[in-house]
Structures are given as C-alpha cells and as structure tokens.
Design brief:
By secondary structure, the protein is mainly α. The protein contains 18 helices and no strands.
Length: 460
C-alpha cells in the first residue's frame, strides 16, 4: 500500500482534512485570482465592453470545464475507492480511460467551436457593440480546450491518490504564468482581448506539461500504461455516472450564463453584461474556499466509506460543514457590505460602477448559505451515490435559478435577474439539509452495527 493510502486510512481526520484542503484552496485561490486579475487587465487595458466580451465567452469556458470536471470527479471517485479496496489495476485503468476521454471530447469541442465561432458568439448573447471583442477572444481560447480539460481532470485524480500539493503546484503554475503574460500581451504588445486569450492558452499548455511529467516521472502511485487507453465500457460508465453530476452542474452553469447574458442584453445592454462578468468572477472567488474544503473531504470520505470506517466519515463531514460555513459567512460579509470598492478594482467606468454596486448587493444576500450546500453535494459524490449527487448538484442551477430568471424580470425588470441568485441559494440550502440529515443517520447506524460486531452488514 502506497504511503498516500496509509495516510488516508490512519491519520487524524482534522489533520488530513487540512492537509488535503489547504492545497486545494490555495490552488483554487490562485486560479480565481487569475480570473479576477485577467478581468482587471481587460477592463483597465481595453475597456468595459471588452469585459462584456470576455464575459460572453465565459459559458464556453465553463462548458469545457464541465467536461474536465466530469472526467476528473468520476475518475477520482473510482480511483479513491479502488485504492481503498487495494485494487491498483482498476485505478490505473481508470486513469488511462480518463486521458482517452479528454482527447476525444476536447478535440471535438475545439473543432466544432472553431467551425461555428460566429454562430456561438451570437448565441451566447453578444450585443452588436460587444460582438467584436467576444469573437476575437473566443477564436483564440478554443485552442486550449484539450489542455484545460486535461489539467482540470488531472487535478482531481492527483488529489484522489492523496498527493494534493502536486495538484496545487499545477494550478499555481497556470495561474501565475497567466497573470505574468497578461500585461505583456495586453499592454506591451497591444494585443487587446486576443492577448488575454493567448496568455491563457500558453499557461494551460505549460500546466498540462507539468502534470504529464508528474505522471511519467514515477512520483505518482499510478502509472500511465498504453493498454489502459483502450476505452472499457464498465470503466467509462462508472466515470460518467459519478462525474455526470459535476458535468451537469457546471454545464448548467454554462447554459444559465448564456440565458443570463441574453436576458441582460435585452433588459440592460452591454454594461449589464460587463456587470455580470465582474459578479461572476467575484462569486467564484467567494465560493472557492468552500469548494476547496469539499475537495479535501472527497478522498477522505471516499476512502473511509470504501474501508467501512463510518466513524471517520461522520467526523470529516461535520468538520467540513463547519469550516465551509465559516468561510462562506466571511465572504458574504465582505461582498455584501463593500460592493463599491470591489467593482472599482475592475473598472472606473461610472455606469459600470453604479450598476455593479447595486447588483452585488442583491446577488450576495444569501451567500452565507453556500458553504454547507457545496459540502452537502460532495458527500454523496464521495460515496458513489449518483442520484442524490445529481439532485443536489443541479438543484440550485436547474430547479431554481433557470425558472426564477425567466419569471422575476417580468415583475422587477433588471433587478429580477439579480434577485434570482439569493432565492435559488436559499431553496437549494433547504433541499441539501433535507437530504444530508438521513444520510448522516445511516452512517451512524452502519457504525453502530460494526461496533456491535456485525461486520457483514453494509449497504454497498
């Protein structure tokens, strides 16, 4: 058994949770920071309409992320459970299949996207004044699709074998390189939004090379073997069924971003699109620590469940929920009470600052509920329960946000779009609570049976 797996089995839960979460949070912090800095350079270097242009292309980037996350989450859940059960062969087969899926799906997205980029730019809600910026950005960003998906999914896989610091370094490399290249391409070489996109693609390429080197160097407990590239129906089915919740959540986010862009275009115009671009970046930044905690929770809970250590499972869920909630309360206090200074970081455009400050107040009213929500949906993902994972991952976006975005603007115009966010957050929090409580009760019953000596009873 590799020493990473020994740690998952024996190390104190709190130490282990921090050990796995802190690198995930740090990596995501840098990733979110890059998203924010990228937008600041575009806003300051090119203008408010360029922010809107980048924001219009965001659904496409989210969709490629969705594919990467589906493969990453599904594969890492399978690898965690295989390592917990001592099946190295299955874990390596999952890795090989994941790489093949990335090449096939990412390659397809790139080809289709480049062939139809004008169509997609209009579809994603670009108004006439925003279109040139959006098209220019999209045509370059598509070239990084396979690289982005490979980096996204590998992060989850590397964390699943307990090697979180490598995943963190890979995120650092991509984000910091991007932040360094942005001002060179935008200001020095005067390449505008095309420069911002080029900086992103170069950074993605370097990140992918770093990860590939890690897998080939022998430092990973998993080996890349050519025979594992051959797709196996059973493995692919497992990857996709567990990862599909992640895919649907993020792809729904992409679909929603398109709807919001189009609604904002008709109710508010180019400046409203720019406001949404800023809010989106800030929202990701605020949710990031909670997502990091959930990513730390996943391998510990998956391993504990596979090894039938329900006591450790209960403990890590409790601790994760408390820490994630504390983070989301802190984010809420900053975003809700200081929206003006935050918007001004991105742009000094008076219309953008005025509208952005007002919109942020509405969007972030219920943000303090996010932490528990994120942890709640990760619980079911970690233990391989596809249906509850699917329900919780999609409730906020699909069940609540989409209908609200269509209904509320009829009554409140532009404000209706902004108010959809906190209402969806509140409803989603309620549904998560209703599903997590019985699952915790089930863990307690399983643990009591094991402690009572009846080791045969389990619900796998």
């Amino acid at each position: 058994m590799h020493n990473h797996s020994l740690a998952l089995a024996n190390e104190p839960v709190k130490t282990l949770l921090w050990k796995l979460s802190v690198p995930a949070i740090a990596g995501m912090f840098v990733m979110s920071l890059y998203n924010v800095v990228d937008m600041i350079f575009v806003g300051r270097g090119v203008g408010a309409l360029a922010i809107a242009g980048v924001s219009v292309v965001f659904p496409l980037q989210m969709f490629t992320m969705a594919v990467g996350m589906m493969i990453g989450m599904g594969t890492s859940s399978l690898i965690s459970r295989s390592l917990g059960a001592g099946d190295m062969k299955q874990a390596e087969r999952a890795l090989g299949n994941a790489i093949s899926l990335i090449l096939i799906l990412g390659g397809t997205l790139t080809i289709v996207g480049l062939a139809k980029s004008t169509f997609f730019t209009h579809l994603f809600g670009a108004t006439d004044d925003v279109f040139p910026y959006a098209k220019e950005y999209m045509d370059v960003i598509l070239f990084g699709t396979v690289l982005r998906e490979f980096s996204m999914s590998s992060n989850g896989i590397i964390r699943a074998e307990g090697n979180a610091h490598v995943a963190m370094i890979s995120m650092f490399i991509g984000a910091l390189l991007n932040i360094a290249l942005d001002p060179i391409f935008i200001f020095v070489l005067d390449m505008g939004v095309r420069g911002a996109a080029l900086a992103t693609v170069i950074a993605q390429a370097v990140t992918a090379l770093y990860i590939l080197r890690y897998f080939l160097s022998g430092k990973s407990s998993l080996r890349i073997k050519v025979k594992n590239f051959l797709l196996g129906w059973v493995v692919v089915k497992q990857i996709v069924s567990i990862g599909s919740a992640s895919f649907i959540r993020t792809a729904a986010g992409s679909f929603i971003a398109v709807i919001i862009n189009r609604m904002l275009g008709s109710y508010g115009g180019g400046i409203s699109l720019a406001v949404y671009g800023v809010i989106n970046r800030v929202l990701m930044f605020g949710a990031m620590p909670s997502i990091g905690i959930a990513q730390g929770l996943q391998p510990i809970l998956g391993f504990s469940y596979g090894a039938r250590r329900y006591d450790r499972g209960i403990e890590v869920i409790r601790k994760s929920a408390i820490i994630a909630t504390a983070f989301s309360v802190a984010a809420f206090l900053i975003l809700f009470f200081f929206p003006g200074p935050i918007v001004r970081i991105f742009s000094t455009d008076a219309a953008l600052v005025y509208q952005g400050t007002h919109a942020m107040k509405l969007v972030f009213i219920a943000f303090w509920l996010i932490g528990f929500q994120v942890v709640g949906s990760t619980i079911f993902q970690a233990i391989g329960k596809a249906i509850p994972t699917f329900i919780l991952s999609t409730s906020r976006q699909i069940l609540f946000l989409i209908p609200l975005i269509f209904i509320l603007p009829h009554f409140f115009q532009l404000d209706g779009i902004w108010l959809s966010f906190p209402i969806a957050d509140t409803l989603s929090f309620a549904i998560t609570l209703v599903m997590v409580i019985p699952q915790m009760r089930e863990f307690k019953i399983q643990q009591a049976l094991i402690e009572g000596g009846d080791v045969t009873c389990t619900n796998h």
